[in-house]
Write a structure and sequence with these properties.
This protein is an alpha/beta fold. The chain has eight helices and five strands. It has one domain: Vaccinia Virus protein VP39 (Rossmann fold, 3-Layer(aba) Sandwich), CATH 3.40.50. The chain is globular, with a radius of gyration of 16 Å.
Length: 203
């Protein structure tokens, strides 16, 4: 939780996260991560290829998700979906195709460069039910009970106050709503040479 960090450390982590994902927005994901990204990452995570085969290359190349939230539960036509940490918008646009024209999908991200890229990608798609905006997982700019589904992919591990972020996701979900969350967890203690390094938060 953020309370274990000093204000300076928290500010440095936020700055580092925005800097890294600004780089992803500009250069694509392949050079920024040590796991499969882009088209190869989508194949390994078994994404629904029928929904993404005509996505713009710039959108596919920016994919750096750590899992496949769509494998965790169904999204139905007409539903409302929030994508927390939407990046360049790939998961957001997959969800938009699932809900169809009668549904609504919103993507938020803390990195303005990623939101700019997501909006640019949206202009290349024939989708009218999607919006993107800058926002933080710990302070969602939405009313209570606003969404049927919240999705997120590799984002909650980056949040400074994970408990607050999860409470916010719960707050904006309608009663009976679903959280489809793909993420990374630490399974063992970090080695001493890495445990204290701020940059390890967002490697």
């Amino acid at each position: 939780m953020e309370s274990s960090l000093t204000e300076k450390e928290a500010a440095l982590i936020r700055e580092g996260i925005r800097g890294k994902y600004t780089q992803v927005a500009a250069a694509g994901a392949a050079s920024c991560f040590k796991y499969p990204t882009g088209e190869e990452g989508l194949k390994q995570q078994r994404y629904p290829l029928d929904l993404i085969r005509d996505f713009p290359p710039a959108l596919v190349n920016s994919f750096c998700g750590v899992g496949n939230p769509f494998s965790l539960g169904q999204i139905y036509p007409g539903e409302s979906v929030l994508d927390i940490g939407c990046g360049a918008g790939l998961d957001t646009l997959v969800a938009a195709r699932m809900v169809g024209p009668g549904g609504r999908v919103v993507g938020i991200d803390v990195t303005p460069g990623m939101i700019d890229k997501a909006r640019a990608n949206l202009t290349l798609m024939d989708l009218q039910n999607v919006t993107f905006q800058v926002g933080e997982a710990e302070s969602l700019p939405f009313s209570d009970n606003d969404f049927d589904v919240v999705i997120s992919n590799g984002v909650f591990n980056l949040t400074l106050d994970k408990e607050r972020a999860l409470k916010e996701a719960h707050r904006v979900l309608k009663p009976g709503g679903r959280l489809l969350l793909a993420d990374m967890v630490l399974m063992a203690e970090l080695p001493p040479e890495k445990a204290g390094k701020i940059e390890n938060w967002y490697q």
